Amino acid sequence: EEKFKTIVEAVSDEVVIWMSTTGMREMLYVNQGYEKQWGRSVDSLYQDPKSFLDIVHPDDKQAVEEIFSLSPDSNWNIDFRIVRDDGEIRHIHNVGFGIIQNGDPLFLVGSAVDRTDIMNRQQQLDESLLKLEAAYKALEELSQKDGLTGALNRSAFIEHLSDAYERFNRYQTPATLIFIDLNQFKEINDNHGHITGDNTLVTLAKVLSANIRQTDVLGRYGGDEFVVLLNNSSASDAKEFYTRVGNSIDVTCNLSGTPLSIGISYGVYEIDSSITDIQQWISHADISMYKDKETPTR
Fold it and tell me: Which CATH number among 3.40.50.720, 3.30.750.24, 3.30.70.270, 3.40.50.300 corresponds to the domain 146-293?
């Protein structure tokens, strides 16, 4: 016991080290680390060896009590919380073992380390990682969207189109591509200003978005050209879509306040076995759109 005390005195008070008889009936030694961690005097532990349980967190108390009902020759390794008299919650890591001599249990020896600062740093790290993950996800989403209209940008839309192409080749899942273009958009910019032109694009994107399903995809292909992918849909479904949207959209000139009605052209192509790549699919829809531009009425 004296040798034990001599060794322990050389250990920092950051660690609680104690020695008791089996069953913790009598506390033989505990260092000053107990006062630092538990906020209670070592004398209280000498008077009642199990008094340390008084401030163990209620949710952890049963697990800690079970440790000392184990066989005297058992080892233990447990994490639990204490609620100090000042209300502070500390996270404790406790390990220990029984000392047996000639088959007889003699002592229990344990140590406890306050891991609160480590736990707090880990929590801060976890929270930082979650924030970083959320920021990365938000940045990734922004990188896929057109800055003006909020529709997917061209490269992001192409990824969805490639997926639809692969699904058709593997499972014959239908899909229809719609190319959409504003008629005489250059004249809108030249005669009514670029702000009116931008407002026109935003308005069209909102109208298109309001008329697609959650499974469909809207993208801005470039300039005043938009694309819509109708997943699990046929050309007849596309007709229903552009009938809902209509042949024109109404906007107001930013400069004069004059109401404007701007025509919309559509090009539709349902994927079929003749399509060998997505560029060909896009080309067919694009050609269909320019034919629509040349038609006075649909």
Answer: 3.30.70.270
Q: Return the CATH fold of 2-119.
A: Beta-Lactamase (3.30.450)
**34 contacts 40 by C-beta, under 8 angstroms:** yes
CA 15 to chain centre: 38
- Pure H helices in 108-232: 116-143, 154-171, 185-192, 194-210
Say yes or no to pLDDT of 259 above 60: yes
Strand order across the beta sheet in which 259-270 lies: 217-222, 225-231, 175-182, 259-270, 248-252
The model carries a pTM of 0.60
Domain assignments of the chain as residue spans, ordered by start: 2-119, 146-293
Q: What angle do CA 159, 162, 168 make, to 5 degrees?
A: 145
Tokens 């000042």 appear where? 86
Are the C-beta atoms of 76 and 84 separated by less than 8 Å? no
**Backbone φ and ψ of 160, nearest 5°:** -65, -40
**Cβ neighbours around 1 below 10 Å, total:** 9
pLDDT digits (tens, 9 = 90+) for 62-77: 999 988 777 777 789 9
Specify the amino acid at residue 229. L
Measured over the CA atoms of residue 205, residue 208, residue 209 and residue 210, the dihedral's sign is positive
CA separation, residue 63 to residues 80, 81, 110, 291 (Å)? 8, 11, 16, 77
